[in-house]
Amino acid sequence: MENDCDKWLASVNEGRKPISILTAPPPLSRLMKAIAEGFDLGRIHLGRIDSEFGKPVGTLLAPILEQWERSGLVVLDGQWVEPTLAGQFWHVNLAQLSIDYLTRSLSEEAVH
Asked: Rounded to an integer, what distance in angstroms lies between the CA atom of residue 46 and that of residue 31?
């Protein structure tokens, strides 16, 4: 959004959107959004995400998901990841940690 009032008004009067800066989303933004949405909804199907995005998400996240299951934060049921009551409380943190871990793992995978 344009923060200069005169430029903003001029854009609006010309029928243009008053945008000052526009950047493209990161390459994996749709994948990361799907992970966050899954935690928000309370259920993630790893196989669907793997096939939709062509990345081994389930394999890459396995170490932390198994740790979270041992800690009582998620239940792993085949391809499904379901937060427990405690996991539902921490779902925002679990989503962000998953995204950070996945981002790091995918960037390391690209290097090798």
From this structure: 11
3-state SS class at 52:
helix
Nearest 10 degrees: CA dihedral of 71, 72, 77, 78?
-10
Exposure on the CB side of residue 25, measured as CA atoms within 13 A: 7
Instruction: Give the pTM.
Output: 0.76
Residue 13's φ and ψ, nearest 5 degrees, are -65, -30
Strands (E), the chain: 44-45, 74-77, 80-83
pLDDT digits (tens, 9 = 90+) for 67-110: 999 999 999 999 999 999 999 999 999 999 999 999 999 887 66
